[in-house]
Amino acid sequence: MKILTANRLTDGEAVWFAADGSWAETIDVAETVGDKAGEARLEAIGKAAYDNNEVVDVNLIDVSVVNGAIQPLRLREVIRAAGPSNRLDLGKQARPAAGAA
Amino acid sequence: MYRYDEFDHDFVKARVADFSDQVERRLAGEITEDQFRPLRLMNGVYLQLHAYMLRIAVPYGTLSSKQMRMLGHIARKYDKGYGHFTTRQNIQFNWPALSDIPAILADLASVEMHAIQTSGNCIRNVTADHFAGAAADEVADPRPYAEILRQWSSVHPEFSYLPRKFKIAVTGAERDRAAIQTHDIGLHLKKNEKGELGFAVYIGGGQGRTPMVAKKIRDFLPEQHLLSYTTAILRVYNLHGRRDNKYKARIKILVHETGVDEIIRQVEHEWQALKDGELKLPEADVAAIQSYFAPPALTARPEGDEAIKLARLDSKSFGDWVDQNVFTHGNPDYAAVTISLKGIGEVPGDATDSQMHAVADIAEKFGFDEIRVSHEQNLILPHVARADLKAVYDALVAIDLATANSNLISDIIACPGLDYCALANARSIPVAQEISRRFASLERQRDIGELKLKISGCINACGHHHVGHIGILGVEKKGAELYQVTLGGSADEHTTVGEIIGRGFGPEEITDAIETIVETYLGIRLDRSEKFLDAYRRVGPAPFKEALYASEAKAA
């Protein structure tokens, strides 16, 4: 499975393309695709967003879905999705979980 | 300290205005990322995993209290309350928004700082011995020459698009604390038999995927020829350095592939045409720059020895700190102090905004307003009266920066690694933290003695692992982190590249492996005076291999 990720142009925030068509700040709402057609569609979306100066460093990344949660296969992407592993008080991992409020 | 003249002020202000306009146009979508990337890199702006990163130049590692306060202000206002001091004596902020960077650069310009040439294929921040101008063993302060090189290399039209980045370091002492032999050009300031100043010139050193120790190409270059000779080297490199392969583009590869004798011939040939031209440094200009670096007026403070003696009786931890973190100054009443940014379990090189402000206050009160950043990712107060050491120590204790571990195993150089860096393959910081915690006991660290441990999270070697007495290189293997260990590297006047000891270790094994190496050393050293590096050079890798891998060899 793959998802589409990038960094937002204005502040560099790591973002993922979500099923609702937005660039989300958390990975859990990313749209997953499981076939070449889906990948091609996400790639086209990424290129359009890059050309439209919304995001930079656009990449399709490999993930698996475990108990409904999206988990990147590479540690690099795990850290991008969470924040620095040595500073749990920083990055997305430090934010209140969605719905927790 | 060097103070900007009118030209410097105008130059930096103009650059801030240029880049602010470029950021504005980028955010408005008027220029593309492909157009913008080289512009942002020339101004120190990278894109990392979580955010943009801004690398700010600290020329030859020298900062005033006012400048340090500004760094603290930037950390607090625009970032997340901390900054990371680097092995190029610079500072990086890990979380700035692109839209805030024009304001940050304007703030920096107000204290004579900038981020120009902290990236890109140009001449980067010139680094220097962090004890320059203070060390008892120095011939002369090398920083005036670093400043001359800075002025000459800033937006140098011929050398702004080199085949690859270019790093210069200078030292003014026989004991090399600036790692000059790991640089593209290393300059050792010294005196000839007539007492004149000049440089031993080294070229072609470097780390990365092809580590090389620099070759000495001239034993004594009279100081007035600094720029003409450097220009000759850069011209030969700019003309013949490879542009077809990024990994073979540094001058070290050119020197290696061409041969030292032929490189010397080419440089000398080029230099003959330059040496008596406009690049020859007028004595008056050198003297004018030197005057900026005149040592502060160090009044006699002979009460220091007595004060230290009494304070030692009162506090063992103060005594330990004096023994470990205080360095001999040229003036016997004074000392240079290493402020360790390597507290046990802390992130090497990180300082909080409050710590930056507090260090600025301490430097203002006790240190003639001067602070240095060392390439080993610590801060230095170069001129402190020995009589004031206890007060400085107490002030550092209050901000958790009094760890007495300078040059010990927990004084680790570590790159940001995969926790921040887009190029990294493995994490560095958590490895450094765990090793630091394992060896937390200061008594144990002091028994082990001088041991330079350096960690990089990828082959680019920002963490200088090749020249660590113990080096750790993080790689990615089958999707997991793996740490390769090298032994026997050093970055001093006898620079060597460490040797890979054997198969790598997983994240959960690496600290044990380091402990095994240290225990092996303790078992083989002749006595406490034989340092790790000396013992390794005497016995070679065999006992360390045996200790690390013998059991699996038997099992197989």
Detail the topology: elements first, then pairings.
The complex is a heterodimer of chains A (101) and B (556).
Chain A: E1 2-8, E2 14-17, E3 23-24, H1 36-51, E4 55-66, E5 69-72, H2 75-82
Antiparallel strand pairs in A: 1-2, 1-4, 2-3, 4-5
Chain B: H1 6-27, H2 33-42, E1 45-47, E2 52-56, E3 62-64, H3 65-77, E4 82-85, E5 91-93, H4 101-109, E6 127-128, H5 143-153, E7 168-171, E8 185-191, E9 197-203, E10 215-222, H6 226-240, H7 251-258, H8 260-274, H9 283-292, H10 304-314, H11 316-325, E11 326-328, E12 334-339, E13 350-352, H12 353-366, E14 370-373, E15 379-385, H13 389-398, E16 413-414, H14 429-438, H15 442-448, E17 453-456, E18 470-477, E19 480-487, E20 499-500, H16 510-524, H17 532-539, H18 542-555
Parallel strand pairs in B: 6-7, 7-8, 16-17, 17-18
Antiparallel strand pairs in B: 1-2, 2-5, 3-14, 4-5, 4-13, 8-9, 9-10, 11-12, 12-15, 14-15, 18-19, 19-20
Helix pairs in contact in B: 1-2, 1-4, 3-12, 5-9, 6-8, 7-8, 10-11, 14-16, 16-17, 16-18
Pfam family, one (chain A): DUF2849
InterPro entries (chain A): DUF2849 (IPR021270)
Organism (chain A): Aminobacter anthyllidis
